[in-house]
Write a structure and sequence with these properties.
- The chain is mainly α and 186 residues long.
- 70% of the residues lie in helices and 0% in strands.
- The chain starts with 6 loop residues before the first helix and ends with a helix.
């Protein structure tokens, strides 16, 4: 068995890959090849981070990893924005469902009614755990995932947002990292 890669190195690698993927946009470097390489690589780094965690709850770990792999599928599909939009959308929907299954393995879906109502506006609040840093990180991950999806939908259907790629991808990878951080380390 190999020793795990330190979280700080994975976090730095994620930031570097995310920055290069975001910088590939036409308003920055206009280098699509960077997006094709570093967008999936960033998500693979989050998967590597999550892979090292959650061994105390194997069912939850499997569902989180499934959500991350489905997100990777969505990332790859969206590398082709026209042809890949519907497959990417379906992949991300399935990722959301996988996360929902993972999150409800330790708490019932509407454990806190006030949080459930808040989740409709800002995802992740369903799982808010008073006094629990892990619960707060998970809630933040859910909220960031919703923010990323809302920014993506706004940019796609309501009109272009300034620096859309920056905001969409930054919130997306921050969300994925927070969700993976919810899994306990070894």
């Amino acid at each position: 068995m190999t020793s795990p890669v330190p979280s700080r190195w994975l976090a730095l690698a994620l930031v570097a890959c995310a920055a290069l993927a975001i910088a590939s946009a036409p308003w920055a470097l206009d280098a699509p090849v960077l997006n094709f390489v570093f967008k999936p690589l960033a998500t693979l780094i989050v998967i590597a981070y999550a892979w090292q965690r959650g061994h105390n709850a194997p069912v939850v770990r499997r569902w989180v990893l499934a959500g991350l792999v489905l997100s990777l599928g969505g990332d790859v599909a969206l590398l082709w924005p026209q042809q890949g939009f519907l497959p990417g959308l379906v992949s991300f929907l399935l990722a959301h469902l996988a996360y929902l299954v993972a999150f409800t393995r330790s708490e019932r879906l509407a454990a806190w009614p006030a949080a459930f109502v808040g989740y409709a506006a800002v995802a992740g609040l369903v799982l808010w755990r008073r006094g629990s840093l892990r619960g707060e990180v998970l809630a933040l991950g859910g909220a960031l995932f919703l923010a990323s999806d809302a920014l993506l939908a706004t940019n796609k259907f309501a009109g272009p947002l300034p620096l859309a790629g920056l905001w969409i991808l930054a919130t997306y990878w921050a969300a994925q990292w927070c969700i993976a951080s919810w899994l306990k380390p070894r």
